[in-house]
Amino acid sequence: MHGGGRSKWKSRKTSRSSLLIFSLLTLLFLLLFFFVFYEEISTFIHPVSKTSSPLSTQSSQCLKTLGERFLFYAPHSGFSNQLSELKNAILMATILNRTLIVPPVLDHHAVALGSCPKFRVLSPNDLRLKVWDHAVELIKEGRYISMAEIIDLSSISKLVRTMDLRDFVSLWCNVALDSVCLDSSNVKSSRLDNLRQCGSLLSGLTGNVYKCVYAVDEDCRTTVWTYKSKDVDSALDAFQPDEQLRLKKKISYVRRRRDVYKNLGPGSAAHLSTVLAFGSLFTSPYRGSQLYIDIPESPRDNRIQSLLDKIEFMPFVPEITNAAKEFVQKVIKSPYLCAQLRLLDGQFKNHWKTTFSVLKLKLLGLKQKGTLPVHIFVMTDLPRSNWSGSYLEELASDESSFKLHVLNNDDEFVRRTAEKIAPASCGKGGIPDNCLRPCPHRRPDVLLYLEEAVCSCASLGFVGTAGSTIAESIELMRKNSACLEQKQIT
Length: 490
Known about the structure:
- By secondary structure, this protein is of the alpha/beta class.
- The protein has 2 domains: 58-311; 318-489, 3-Layer(aba) Sandwich (Rossmann fold).
- It is 42% helix and 11% strand.
- The protein has 17 helices and 16 strands.
- The strands form 5 sheets. A 5-stranded parallel sheet has the order 5-2-1-10-6, with helices on both faces. A 4-stranded parallel sheet has the order 15-14-13-16, with helices on both faces. A 3-stranded mixed sheet has the order 7-9-8.
- Strand 3 and strand 4 form a beta hairpin.
- The longest helix is centred in the N-terminal third of the chain and has 35 residues, at 2-36.
- The radius of gyration is 30 Å and the shape is elongated.
- The chain crosses the membrane at residues 20-38.
- InterPro entries: GDP-Fuc_O-FucTrfase.
- This is O-fucosyltransferase family protein.
């Protein structure tokens, strides 16, 4: 009898053990299922609303754009530098097969990088955030002009996909840009908070987010990007901080040459991310090397070589080039010299004598062999009201020998060009009906671009300020015959 009781007790104990094991296995299965499908479940239960925080819905945002991968970068400094970075961004986006997010034209020096040769630059995270904040301000104030509205991108449209930053903001941040306008009293703080948090995510301040955002931390202090070069990946670059700089500034950086495709392309953590965010993409020659990007040619990749040939020179949009030609034909109406005189900014304010001496020498030659008066188109940052006592005043007063031409923001050609580039509403001025004009637009400042285009047409030659990137841009335009032939303006 006791034996039968023990048998029943053992049976109940076995049943309890089996039930416990089954329960544990079920619980483990449910936990595993929840972990694997958490993003889909949470999105289904809590759908993303237009006022939700980008940081709290970042997974949903990345799922939303899973079919497309983007490249974001942080331009800076003046327009010439920004154009140089746009070219490099086009190159990087093509190599990595990503859609390029085209930024706005930033205010002159609204964002500064620092000095790569001195290893003193803004961190990529801080640079990205400054660019983002400035872009939001441009949208709010109705001053946003895309680089694609100034530079003609049609030549590269078949090689790389592009998206305007404003479209990306609407998609990525769940913010309707028609609600972020000039009158700040109408802007709800929640929308601005969304934009700030979105910028924080994109800048990398919150760290990389797996399969969502990969923020590139490597900058000119540590890296020179290459592509299919003969260098061994991660080999030391020729330019390194010298011993004096290392000791004085306590610099420990080591610059290495790294293949951008191997490190950020297929097979890398960066490749899995929806957005690849660079900091600065500015580069220039320095001490036998390049400061950040060294891809001068690509003989092993015909597609990239073709792109390099196309982006060497990228013209202004037709609205700008046509206005410049019209100014030459209707106002100047004679062969002329262009003088680009940078006199007020940075290092240039201390070199007036050198700048003017080159111009004097050129004009002396033109006077001796040409018909008077010599026509001169003057492009300068020195206001005409401040010409008193300068060589410019001397030229302006000698009307028998010289005739000076200038452009300013009140000129008809400038106003009309600005209106064509940024019409008051969509569907006008050649802008597609589905264009994005989130806020009432102020007339953009297009004077610099028109002046450069007019200088590219000067048949008597060009005198530029030594060391000016604007002068370099004009020389490139002239080299590529961006304007009229001489016979058309004589």
